[in-house]
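Q: I have 563 residues here and want to know how they pack in 3D. Can you give me a structure?
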Amino acid sequence: MGLQFLLKEVTNDHHHHLLLLLSSDDEAEGTNEATNEATVNVSFSRGQNLRRSLVLDGIDVTGYPIFNDAKVEKAIASVADECVSVADECSSVADAIFIYNHFLKSNSNISPDHHTYPALITACSRLPSLLSIGKQLHARIIITGFNNDIYVQNSLIHFYGFADEKNNARKVFDSMPQRDLTTWNCLIAAHSHDDALILLRKMKLNGIDVDSITLMNILNACGRERDQKGGEIVHGLGLKTGLGSDSKLRKSAMGMYVKCSDMISAEKLFDEMTIRTDVIIWNSLIHGYVQLNRPNDALKLFMRMENTIEKDETTVVSLLAASAALLNLNYGKQIHSFLLRKNINYDKFIETALIDMYSKCGNLEKALLIFKNSKSKDVYTWTTMIQGLANNGRGYESLNLLNEMENQGIKPNSATFVSALTGCGKSGLVEQGCEVFKKMVEIYGIKPRIEHFGCLIDLLIGCGKMEMAMEFIEMIDEEERIVVYKSFLNGCIDDCRIDLGLKFVDELCKFGLISDHDCDHDDAIFVMVSNFYALAGEWFRVGEIRKMMRSFDLVKEQGISSI
């Protein structure tokens, strides 16, 4: 009986016949009967013969590039190798499973071997929707006796690592009668940086020499977890073992330093590279500068690469983010022109970055035009446009766009509601803001975070609804309230609400935010409390606050003028 696959995410017309083939048990049995009658002594030694067999099965393969490509006609030594090779030529991973399922249903004498299963397991690791199929293949591997083959087992460890099921990866590892360096590398890739470092020590204790792939996997894990100390240890090991000159290892080390915000070490590695033709290392540095709010450095690096390195979509997205951070419309237009001049394909990431840049740089009409013409809008594209309208004081339009988004079946996320609430706040839409907050919680089941509370509380304070704002403040976890306390106290001062202000200051004292104890102090809070006591005529307390500020060497930040 063939495996029954549920390829929910494979919806292309290209795979229409695949979905028909991979159907229910009853349908599969019917297909097997038809196959047995139609397929008689058909040789599978060449790709063309495979194509002929499928046609005899009544399967239309004209829409499948794998059977219309001249590469299929190349000599393939064995049936097993043919299955793998044809799968490797597939235009999608579903085609590999298509061929495999055909072999099972044809009742032929062809059996998958230790070359076939790793190719199929690798195919299953490329799409989240195929993870359950990979597990079914694992069961068949056990049934067919390939569970002791090191090549097959290595592919299973890699598969479970991709599926984020490290316990299953470890079970496969522990059951292996023999292991090689690839086995350890696959297991390390499946684990977090802490576990990966432990596995590295075990490798050394077992006398297994590491290679550049081992160290790259751990460096990537350290980068993801922002563990610079662990990354430095691994990088040092690479230098000690003579692997430091490996270009891919250097790239991984540089990426780790960038993710850990150590641009000095990243720049040093970059400058030591004699060959810098890989656009990925340039993109890594540019992205690091943008993330650390150093947009000028990002643009300077772009100027260095302009005439020597071919840019890609990632480069453009990072540079547009840099222009948006600088609020420099001129830079943004130049990058947009570069995009058009080089004929770089627009994708949803570039379109979203363009919308963000034009919105932040004040050219909202251009942002709206790009948004309107976009053919691949996702939740991030919609959210970026809603945020752009909100930040430019067009609250009603941002809410209309939110409604349009919902009508088109796009589900808003947490960030979408932050943007919508921001629009309500900047336009003073109290009733609408409360409705948006209620919709977020009751309809979409999104738990409010401090960002949502902050937007709504700022809106209420700005409209003088202090009591209602206080009610929402009390819903926030106590340790997070400091974020909105400043806004509330400013509102009390602006509205001369001495009663609420006194209650609020008592809360600050309760949490030790205004005290003479040794703790982290925010000079802005001291200044606001001092101003409030002055407004209330509590001059003795004003003196006490200022005395505390002097004892902590806190100085009021000087005001500046943009004129």
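Q: Anything worth noting?
A: Residues 501-563 form one domain. The chain has 31 helices and no strands.
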